[in-house]
């Protein structure tokens, strides 16, 4: 009986140690990757992301590297839509105004 209890305790201790070791190895791997230099592909990817973020903050309208042909195309499409659906600012979401209906009581 005592041997059985000792075996259960050792199994519990082994699983606890195993879990702790796995967690520490996972955490140390993340810290190790941050501490060392990234490989060139990862570094290039991060550089492009940072470059795009700075360009998107500086670009008017939020469109990065929009050339004159893109702006001309957008202007043509807005002109087409205004011709089809009437005048107004097509760059804003429309505002809807709903009136409360007049209800009348009907006699039975």
Automatic annotation (TrEMBL):
<comment type="function">
    <text>Subunit F6, of the mitochondrial membrane ATP synthase complex (F(1)F(0) ATP synthase or Complex V) that produces ATP from ADP in the presence of a proton gradient across the membrane which is generated by electron transport complexes of the respiratory chain. ATP synthase complex consist of a soluble F(1) head domain - the catalytic core - and a membrane F(1) domain - the membrane proton channel. These two domains are linked by a central stalk rotating inside the F(1) region and a stationary peripheral stalk.</text>
</comment>
<keyword id="KW-0813">Transport</keyword>
<dbReference type="GO" id="GO:0045259">
    <property type="term" value="C:proton-transporting ATP synthase complex"/>
</dbReference>
<protein>
    <recommendedName>
        <fullName>ATP synthase-coupling factor 6, mitochondrial</fullName>
    </recommendedName>
</protein>
<keyword id="KW-0406">Ion transport</keyword>
<keyword id="KW-0999">Mitochondrion inner membrane</keyword>
<dbReference type="GO" id="GO:0015078">
    <property type="term" value="F:proton transmembrane transporter activity"/>
</dbReference>
<feature type="signal peptide">
    <location>
        <begin position="1"/>
        <end position="18"/>
    </location>
</feature>
<dbReference type="Pfam" id="PF05511">
    <property type="entry name" value="ATP-synt_F6"/>
</dbReference>
<comment type="similarity">
    <text>Belongs to the eukaryotic ATPase subunit F6 family.</text>
</comment>
<comment type="function">
    <text>Mitochondrial membrane ATP synthase (F(1)F(0) ATP synthase or Complex V) produces ATP from ADP in the presence of a proton gradient across the membrane which is generated by electron transport complexes of the respiratory chain.</text>
</comment>
<comment type="subunit">
    <text>Component of the ATP synthase complex composed at least of ATP5F1A/subunit alpha, ATP5F1B/subunit beta, ATP5MC1/subunit c (homooctomer), MT-ATP6/subunit a, MT-ATP8/subunit 8, ATP5ME/subunit e, ATP5MF/subunit f, ATP5MG/subunit g, ATP5MK/subunit k, ATP5MJ/subunit j, ATP5F1C/subunit gamma, ATP5F1D/subunit delta, ATP5F1E/subunit epsilon, ATP5PF/subunit F6, ATP5PB/subunit b, ATP5PD/subunit d, ATP5PO/subunit OSCP.</text>
</comment>
<keyword id="KW-0472">Membrane</keyword>
<dbReference type="GO" id="GO:0005743">
    <property type="term" value="C:mitochondrial inner membrane"/>
</dbReference>
<dbReference type="GO" id="GO:0015986">
    <property type="term" value="P:proton motive force-driven ATP synthesis"/>
</dbReference>
<dbReference type="InterPro" id="IPR008387">
    <property type="entry name" value="ATP_synth_f6_mt"/>
</dbReference>
<dbReference type="InterPro" id="IPR036204">
    <property type="entry name" value="ATP_synth_f6_sf_mt"/>
</dbReference>
<keyword id="KW-0138">CF(0)</keyword>
<keyword id="KW-0496">Mitochondrion</keyword>
<keyword id="KW-0732">Signal</keyword>
<keyword id="KW-0375">Hydrogen ion transport</keyword>
């Amino acid at each position: 009986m005592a041997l059985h209890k000792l075996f259960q305790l050792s199994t519990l201790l082994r699983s606890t140690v195993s879990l702790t070791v796995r967690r520490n190895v996972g955490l140390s791997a993340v810290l190790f990757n941050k501490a060392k230099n990234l490989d060139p592909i990862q570094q290039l990817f991060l550089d492009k992301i940072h470059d795009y973020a700075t360009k998107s903050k500086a670009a008017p309208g939020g469109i990065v590297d929009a050339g004159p042909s893109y702006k001309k195309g957008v202007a043509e499409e807005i002109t087409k839509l205004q011709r089809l659906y009437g005048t107004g600012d097509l760059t804003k979401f429309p505002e809807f105004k709903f009136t409360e209906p007049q209800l009348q009581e009907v006699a039975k």
